[in-house]
Write a structure and sequence with these properties.
Blueprint: H1 4-19, H2 30-42, H3 44-50, H4 53-79, H5 85-109, H6 114-139, H7 152-169, H8 173-201
Helix pairs in contact: 1-4, 2-4, 2-5, 3-4, 3-5, 4-5, 4-7, 5-6, 5-7, 5-8, 6-8, 7-8
Length: about 200
């Protein structure tokens, strides 16, 4: 994983924050944080639809919060010893909704052009196939963690960076080419995983 070390460092910071008092203001049920992450994402398309600069800034903030809650749910689960199979299922399932909404947000900023729509659909396809390839491979006993050019963490960070760059520049081409980049990178990752699994299982 390209950002594996950064993710580990962020998780250490999160654990330290929990131990120093953040845990007192967060719900002890990690599933509540997972649902809060989805709720944060669900309200963003409305603000994108407003097509106002302050609304785009708010969308960026909400998506950052959604990502933070997604990280904290696992930390809270381990901190309180409340990790469960249900929590793991909800986390990975609701993550797919958040991913979809974040991509649609970019598309809405770009006013849904024909090519932009094609790039959006390809990015969604690549994202879903990347996740499905890992889930199916690991069900067959092939480890996929850290395998691939751009995993979910990198994908979300890239989406946030694209939105931030657009807010700073107000150049719509940033969104257009950002969707193209996501479409290419996600599908390369999916194909990469398919090839690795095929080689592993074919031995």
């Amino acid at each position: 994983m390209v950002l594996g070390k950064l993710k580990d460092r962020i998780e250490r910071i999160g654990r330290n924050a929990l131990e120093k008092g953040l845990v007192k203001v967060l719900p002890r049920n990690p599933n509540a944080l997972t649902v809060m992450s989805l709720i944060m994402a669900l309200i963003t398309p409305y603000f994108v639809w407003l097509h106002l600069h302050w609304a785009y800034v708010l969308v960026l903030a909400l998506l950052i919060l959604a990502s933070a809650f997604d990280m904290l749910d696992g930390l809270v689960a381990r901190y309180w010893g409340r990790a469960s199979r249900l929590g793991a299922f909800l986390d990975s399932t609701l993550d797919r909704y958040v991913d979809f909404i974040a991509l649609v947000d970019l598309w809405l900023v770009n006013d849904g052009t024909v090519l932009g729509t094609i790039f959006l659909l390809l990015a969604i396809l690549g994202s879903l196939m990347t996740s499905y390839a890992r889930a199916r491979a690991e069900a067959l006993g092939v480890k996929m963690m850290g395998v691939g050019l751009i995993e979910r963490e990198e994908r979300l960070i890239l989406i946030l960076l694209i939105l931030l760059l657009f807010i700073i520049t107000n150049i719509y081409a940033v969104i257009f080419y950002g969707l193209l980049l996501l479409a290419v990178l996600t599908n390369i990752t999916a194909i990469e995983r398919i090839v690795i699994v095929a080689r592993t299982l074919g031995k």
